[in-house]
């Protein structure tokens, strides 16, 4: 290995081509050229961060530069070495298997942006994979990255999506029927792509998996990394990590607190737009509090707190409702690595304030969505009951807030009219049943739960006797609860279902109306109606990247028609405006959003 200057800070770089990359943060790589690259779509707003005008993006040779076929002047291609806890277990060295650092740009506004290719070929961390991405997954990541930015959710950006005539073999449905798919490269942009897993290269042997990081014991490199991120990304925090050769523990603790708070705010944003990441491993958590690595993500349509967007997440570890707790757990894992140079109790004390930081951001966003200008202690209960009502009535997440926004609760409030409006957003008895899908029969669930009970009797451990068969206890319990819900529906008529939905919405709307009346009194403004309307309009999107919308764009792109992909980018750039195409704001009934993307 050897040293090289990386954006003013030193980083260890290895020239090793395969295997464990020890005592290094990056390995030098070269992109693998693609045949006949062409542009699918580009984001002018993202590319402006790099001071690239649209005239440059339209040049004939633009795709060749943005897929790695032609070297970008000044580029220093490298793959990042990191580790990670995947689905709760330490996996050892992972690294950039399909992405690579290209370089950094300081724009005219003196902002520094790191640029990265995804899908440009093999790296030392590709293992048996080919380092390629396909049009299907690349277009999903491109569109969602830009959509999230315009929704106000902290995220990495996507500058371009370039496709090639070269193909790779992918078994899309994992059913033994592989197909050839076109190689595609996206340009990703962020202040940095360093992640929690970047620090896990220093992890000692894990007691559960017996794996360890490739740079165990190299705390000097850890100190360099801490110094780098403090200087480069958190200069506003007082002090330096190293001053006169001495480690400043309080500076590291302050930086940890900032990362914790940013992460808490990030997941609060996810929960309030119905976004599910799908793969919240520690290697997919940004040290800048950004949404990073869009894989099998999903935006919830019919509200379901147990929503799972990743078809591989059988146990629901990364379900919608689990995201806040999982992100907190991941921040704790980052703290374990920083505890190599700072007393762990100081970092643990920071993490104790997670719940408060999350609640403050979450409730602030929820008040905006509901047009509440003041706060009340009872707000958390109001929000909780709203989501219970949405769950019980199978209401569409995004549309619920739009309907509430469009209803008049100030002048001439007509309760039954609003109840009727909210009921139009619920699912009928038959459609509700379609959303309740199970893997196991009720009898199988009962038998499997009996086995678990027998093995765990008298034991406080979380031993799963079904694990050897690939069965997650959580998925069995979830299926059993679904069977119970289906039995209730079987005893219900369509009229009963409609009455149930109306009653549940009426009950919550009475609470909401009383809260608005109190808000009107407490706000102290004569322009209350106008102010709450403005706040809601800027908080409740009309359009989100629903799966069925993205799939239409993918289907057309795969036959060479990129017009819908480009149109979707335009629409996602103005998510609070009503699009001309009504179907872009409509839900796909029965779509649970679960998928696997490679």
Brief characterization of the structure:
By secondary structure, the chain is α+β, with helices and mostly antiparallel strands.
List keywords for this structure.
598 residues, alpha+beta, 16 strands, 6-stranded antiparallel sheet, 4-stranded mixed sheet, disordered N terminus
Notes on the protein architecture:
- It contains 19 helices and 16 strands.
- The chain has helices at residues 44-48, 54-57, 62-65, 135-150, 219-233, 249-273, 323-338, 344-351, 354-370, 379-393, 397-406, 415-423, 429-435, 442-456, 473-490, 494-523, 528-537, 547-557, 563-572; strands at residues 2-6, 9-14, 26-28, 38-42, 78-80, 83-86, 89-93, 99-106, 112-118, 133-134, 157-170, 179-190, 242-243, 246-247, 275-276, 298-299.
- The strands form five sheets. Strands 4, 8, 9, 10, 11 and 12 form a six-stranded antiparallel sheet that branches.
- The longest helix is centred in the last third of the chain and has 30 residues, at 494-523.
Helix content: 40-55%
- End-to-end CA span: 31 Å
**Tally of helical segments:** 19
Estimate the mean pLDDT confidence: 91
Number of strands: 16
Shape descriptor reads globular
Radius of gyration (CA) equals 25 Å
Give the low-pLDDT segments: 1-10, 591-597
How big a fraction of the residues is strand? 5-15%
Largest sheet: 6 strands, antiparallel
Which structural class do the helices and strands define?
Answer: alpha+beta
Which helices and strands appear, and what pairs or packs with what?
Blueprint (H helix, E strand, L loop, with lengths): L1 E5 L2 E6 L11 E3 L9 E5 L1 H5 L5 H4 L4 H4 L12 E3 L2 E4 L2 E5 L5 E8 L5 E7 L14 E2 H16 L6 E14 L8 E12 L28 H15 L8 E2 L2 E2 L1 H25 L1 E2 L21 E2 L23 H16 L5 H8 L2 H17 L8 H15 L3 H10 L8 H9 L5 H7 L6 H15 L16 H18 L3 H30 L4 H10 L9 H11 L5 H10 L26
Parallel strand pairs: 2-3
Antiparallel strand pairs: 1-2, 3-5, 4-11, 6-7, 8-9, 9-12, 10-12, 11-12, 13-14, 15-16
Helix pairs in contact: 4-18, 4-19, 6-7, 6-8, 6-9, 7-8, 10-16, 12-16, 14-15, 18-19
